[in-house]
Design a protein that fits this description.
It comes from Morella rubra. With 517 residues, this protein is α/β, with parallel strands linked by helices. It folds into two domains: 341 residues, Alpha-Beta Barrel (TIM Barrel), CATH 3.20.20; 128 residues, Trefoil (Acidic Fibroblast Growth Factor, subunit A) (Trefoil). The protein contains twelve helices and 20 strands. Strands 1-14-15-16-17-18-19-20 form an eight-stranded parallel beta barrel, surrounded by four helices. Strands 2-5-6-9-10-13 form a six-stranded antiparallel β-barrel. The radius of gyration is 26 Å and the shape is elongated. The chain binds 2-acetamido-2-deoxy-beta-D-glucopyranose (4 copies). The site of one 2-acetamido-2-deoxy-beta-D-glucopyranose has 7 residues, from helix 6.
């Protein structure tokens, strides 16, 4: 009797120990530690703000896909307008420009473009002396225009050679007689570039054109991140890299236009380098077909979010299948993240949950142990929405991105406010999630930057320390965004070299290191 009960006590204690040590360490990492990771952002998925020079050689580089423009007739002094956002004839009758007067560019070549209205229709000029309408769902020759530029002024010419003009009746027609001069005339418009902030893989490849883009991306992929960076990470005791990839990786070496092959070879290299430094890899599907958030980092063409359609979702699952089958048995694989930052306004929760469940099963076809990582929707979403969703039974992780940025809430915060926010709000949220019954928690993106304009080195050190202390409690761990960045405070290597981020106090002494460095 006594023997039995003490056995039970032992079994109970053993379970207790396993639950506690198990839940807070990640299988496959050296020293049973948790993820202390860095993102390899801006490498295999281009983000212009991370490395602006990538775009420097593009002719007419301020007219890339997704650039928003407005046109004002110099004779009428009125803006071109797609009434109701599209569907009817275009007029030239507005004093003030707003969304109906703003057109998104689809670039065809450095001098030919298509113009998309706020509701997604394309300007059309059909036949001789057309009245320009805004009714086409998909563009072809009748929706393609030459745009000739001269200091802020433009002429817009249809493929057959006629120039558009603003008529005295405020219509837009394709019948200007002959060749206009740059003086004030009915065929001359002032073009305002309202926004030009998409600089992703689509813009780069379509901006340079295939051959030039191939050269630019080859140089970038071979030089931006190399084995030396893995050595650097190893020396600083980083045990994981999160690697953003785009859906076109599954079509290497010849992905659909305009995307450029070569990312698969780079990912293979990253896995080998990681393995040689005992670093693990998380493959993060950052850009899904159609774009899951309309941003450059999901390779959106013009800011639209076309992912949530059955076709795109099924293609995305094929990409996960491709990645899982290729890397499941690689010793450096830690996990696969099914989708980065789906938009809360554009991606319905049930669509996302269904995708995540199918993605989980696909990864499990190839690996019982690889972590399957799901990402919280961005925008105003409650992380708990994915907690109760029953996406999979084991080794499942929820990725949250913690930035004290991108929200007016942080705009006027002082250094001290920011630090307090980490210790109070972030910590409470993390503890609540750690204690909830559900996936492990991963702070898969965070940065030692804020919207404080004059932070000193020691302010940054304190802020970095607060974040590391708090995020280190996440049950799966964390990953810094990002390894390299033109903006130095975002750049992990700059932070380490300049002592703005101090990892030592959370990493402690790990004996294996002293002997390996
Ligand atoms: C567009 O303009 C043409 C030519 O003026 C006209 O025949 C047509 O009815 C107009 N369409 C609409 C939808 O207003
Ligand atoms: C995604 O879906 C959109 C809308 O259905 C479609 O136009 C687009 O071609 C799809 N994208 C890819 C890459 O298949
Ligand atoms: C920082 O604050 C300014 C206003 O002071 C705001 O315009 C900007 O968007 C903020 N930046 C970020 C990245 O949140
Ligand atoms: C930030 O402070 C400025 C100046 O006091 C104020 O005009 C602005 O409205 C504040 N912004 C927010 C988002 O609180």
């Amino acid at each position: 009797m006594e023997l039995v009960s003490s056995k039970w006590v032992c079994a109970f204690l053993l379970c207790f120990w396993l639950v506690f040590s198990g839940a807070y360490s990640v299988e496959g990492l050296r020293g049973n530690s948790k993820v202390k990771g860095v993102n390899l952002g801006g490498w295999l998925v281009v983000e212009g703000w991370i490395k602006p020079t990538l775009f420097d050689g593009i002719p007419n580089g301020d007219m890339l896909d997704g650039t928003e423009v407005q046109f004002k007739s110099v004779t009428l002094q009125k803006y071109m307008c797609a009434e109701n956002g599209g569907g009817v004839n275009v007029t030239v009758n507005r004093d003030v420009a707003s969304s109906w007067e703003t057109f998104k560019i689809w670039r065809v070549s450095e001098s030919t473009f298509q113009l998309r209205t706020s509701l997604g229709q394309f300007l059309t000029c059909d036949g001789e002396q057309c009245s320009v309408s805004a009714a086409a769902g998909l563009p072809s020759a009748s929706q393609t225009f030459f745009i000739e530029r001269n200091n802020g002024r433009v002429h817009i010419k249809v493929m057959s050679g006629a120039y558009l003009q603003a008529t005295v009746g405020n219509q837009l027609t394709g019948d200007y007689p002959g060749m206009p001069s740059w003086d004030d005339n009915a065929a001359t418009f002032e073009m305002t570039i309202v926004s030009n902030n998409l600089h992703g893989d689509f813009q780069l490849a379509n901006g340079y054109g295939h051959n030039e883009a191939k050269e630019v991306l080859k140089r970038h992929r071979n030089s931006f991140i190399t084995i030396d960076d893995f050595r650097f990470l190893y020396r600083h005791r980083i045990n994981t890299v999160r690697i953003p990839v785009g859906w076109w990786i599954a079509f290497d070496p010849n992905p659909p236009s305009p995307f450029i092959g070569g990312t698969l070879e780079a990912l293979d290299n990253a896995f080998s380098w990681a393995q040689s430094f005992n670093i693990k890899c998380i493959i993060d599907l950052h850009a899904a077909p159609g774009s899951q958030n309309g941003m450059e980092h999901s390779a959106s063409r013009d800011g639209s979010t076309g992912w949530p359609t059955p076709d795109n979702i099924s293609q995305t699952l094929d990409v996960i299948d491709f990645l899982a089958s290729r890397y499941a048995r690689h010793p450096a694989l830690l996990g696969i993240e099914l989708l980065n930052e789906p938009s809360v306004t554009m991606v319905p929760l049930d669509t996302l949950v269904s995708y995540y469940r199918q993605g989980y099963q696909i990864v499990r076809k190839y690996s019982q142990t690889a972590y399957v990582i799901i990402c919280q929707r961005i925008g105003n979403a409650d992380p708990l929405e994915l907690y109760q969703a029953n996406i999979g039974s084991h080794n499942i992780v929820l990725d949250l991105h913690f930035y004290n940025l991108f929200d007016t809430f942080f705009v006027n915060m002082s250094a001290a406010d920011n630090i307090l926010f980490i210790y109070k709000s972030r910590e409470a949220q993390l503890q609540a999630l750690n204690n909830a019954n559900g996936p492990l928690v991963f702070i898969g993106e965070w940065v030692n930057e804020w919207n404080v304009t004059s932070g000193s080195q020691s302010d940054y050190q304190d802020y970095g320390k607060a974040q590391l202390e708090v995020y280190d409690a996440a049950s799966f761990g964390w990953a810094y965004w990002t390894l390299k960045n033109d903006r130095k405070h975002w750049d992990f290597e700059w932070n380490m070299r300049n002592n703005y981020l101090q990892l030592a106090h959370i990493l402690g002494a790990e004996s294996e290191f002293s002997s390996h460095i």
